[in-house]
Write a structure and sequence with these properties.
The chain has helices at 12-28, 41-44, 52-64, 80-91, 111-116, 130-138, 146-155; strands at residues 2-6, 33-35, 68-72, 96-99, 140-143. Strands 2-1-3-4-5 form a five-stranded parallel sheet, with helices on both faces. The chain has one domain (2-151): Rossmann fold. The chain is built from seven helices and five strands, in the order E-H-E-H-H-E-H-E-H-H-E-H. Helix 4 (80-91) runs parallel beside helix 6. By secondary structure, it is an alpha/beta fold.
Length: 157
């Protein structure tokens, strides 16, 4: 199975997280072929040069050659590149497993957190773009942990 790993990758923390997570998946499920865009130096070595067309062609080719996409949804908002990749996957009926680990989603039934929703500026939860998450849910699932991600991948093997 070929997997496209869509994730933000410009901060060192993002790159390290992606490397750690992909290494863990590769260790647990060695039969998978995982494309991690940051490993493609031809377009993502930021000391070199790749224009927008080169990046779009290279990554779209990899999305279209994949059987499954993993999309990291964490951050202030869903990364613009990740959202674009999700759109390509949806258009080509490639299932997506969204990984959303934001701790603010916890405590969803806490009465004080729910009451705070009515107060301006007191939302205790994080917002994800509903169009993008809807595209994922139409042909995939969103999970909230590395363990759930690996379990979901395993189900699809």
């Amino acid at each position: 199975m070929k997997i496209y790993f869509a994730a933000p990758m410009f901060a060192e923390s993002e790159r390290l997280y992606n490397e750690m997570l992909v290494a863990n998946i590769r260790q647990v499920l060695p039969e998978l072929q995982i494309y991690l865009p940051q490993e493609n130096g031809a377009i993502n070595d930021k000391m070199a040069y790749a224009n927008s067309v080169m990046i779009a062609e290279a990554d779209t080719k990899e999305v279209l050659n994949s059987d499954l996409m993993i999309a990291v949804l964490d951050g202030v908002s869903i990364d613009a590149g990740v959202a674009s990749e999700i759109g390509v996957a949806y258009a080509k009926n490639i299932p997506v497993i969204g990984l959303y680990t934001d701790s603010r989603q916890q405590g969803g039934e806490h009465p004080d957190k729910l009451a705070a929703l009515t107060e301006i500026g007191e939302n205790q939860f994080h917002y994800l773009n509903l169009y993008t998450t809807g595209l994922i849910k139409l042909n995939g699932v969103i999970v909230s942990s590395k363990e759930a991600l690996i379990s979901e991948i395993s189900k699809r093997l």
